Amino acid sequence: MGFARNFAPNNSIVRRIEVSESPALLMEGGRKPVRVLLGSGGIATEERREIYRSLVSDHFSDGSQVVFVPFASHDHSGYTSRMQEFLGGIGQEFLGLHESSKPHETISQADAIYVGGGNSFLLIKELHDRGLVDPIREAVISGTPYLGVSAGANVACPTMMTTNDMPIVLPPSFESFGIVPFQINPHYHPGKVLFMDGDEVTNHYGESRAQRIAEFHRHQDTPVLGMWEGSFVQWDGSRGRLTGRATAFLPGAEPRDFHDGSEFDSELRFRD
Ligand code: ASP
Predict the structure, then answer these.
(1) pTM over cut 0.70
(2) Is residue 212 part of a domain?
(3) How many domains does the chain have?
(4) Which residue of 17, 52, 157, 230 is 20 to 30 Å from 87, comparing CA positions?
(5) What are phi and psi of 252, to 5 degrees?
């Protein structure tokens, strides 16, 4: 897979960060199909947890061990054990990648890979510093199922530039796995925000997500999927399927809302 390596996030040229050899093309060469499952996060109600467990257990059903990537968090061991506990019922064992002395081998032999949420800047810095971006991308393109939630969904995109997170560390690059050809804004909501100030409901006047995504589109023209909390996207290398709700942003076009069961292509053209 070739990426534009000279990617400079601060330039003012509107451009597309391309995945030049798409997973769909690779699939035609007889390789295993790409299996990517991305979650927005906000899995905080019992109904959402049930959907999550059912999608994840199906996604991981071919293997017995999941390599968990906890680098978006500061507490690698604690996060890995919490995940094992949370998903314990689905039958897989979770191995924290921080525990491996040969992480590249662990990745290439993984039955499945799960990249957890937290801070996306910290995550992409750790992935670059540990030399894990190419190995994980290659494993997924060769058919290893990938699950990414929230920050783990951000890094599945060509870059992690549509995160909501603060840049608490400086990564060497924003380039990410590019295992899906569009950007994701997780935990998306359409704004406008009201909050409680004591007993009073008060307006919040900061930018909405749609405004931030429009700012992104002044510099880049990769489509952006605003994933509402509790939603999931399955991507097979050429087509996606939405569980839950999402809003698609294409440069120069009005945002479009999509609902449970919608299917879409690499340009986020949905078919309801
Ligand atoms: N902080 C989020 C998470 O991983 C990512 C984001 O909002 O962009 O939960």
Answers:
(1) yes
(2) yes
(3) 1
(4) 157
(5) 80, 5
> β-strands 224-228, 183-188: how paired?
parallel
Ligand 1: residue of 120, 160, 224 to mutate (most ligand atoms within 8 A of CB) is 120
Task: For 185-208, write each residue's pLDDT tens digit.
Answer: 999 999 888 999 999 999 999 999
Query: Closest by alpha carbon to 26, among 132, 111, 143?
Result: 143
Query: What count of other Cβ atoms lies within 10 Å of the Cβ of residue 127?
Result: 25
Q: Is the dihedral of CA 122, 124, 127, 130 positive or negative?
A: negative
Closest among 237, 241, 238 to 225, alpha carbons compared = 241
**What is the Cα Rg of the chain in Å?**
18
Structure token pair of residue 36: 């990517």
pLDDT tens profile 53-108: 999 999 999 999 999 999 999 999 999 999 999 887 888 899 999 999 999 999 99
CATH number of the domain residue 208 falls in: 3.40.50.880
Q: Which residues pair with 149 in a beta bridge?
A: 39
Q: How far is the CA of 152 from the centre of ligand 1 (A)?
A: 8
- 229 domain residue, yes or no: yes
Residue indicated by tokens 């309801």: 272
Active site annotation includes 57: no
| Domain interval for residue 17 | 2-264
Q: Specify the length of the chain in residues.
A: 272
Angle, vertex CA 256, rays to CA 253 and CA 262, nearest 5 = 135
Within 6 A (CB) of ligand 1 lie: 41, 72, 117-118, 120, 150-151, 154, 163-165, 186-187
Q: Which of 59, 187, 217, 266 is catalytic?
A: 187
* Three-state SS annotation for 153-185: HHCCCCECCCCCCCCCCCCCCCECCCCCCCEEE
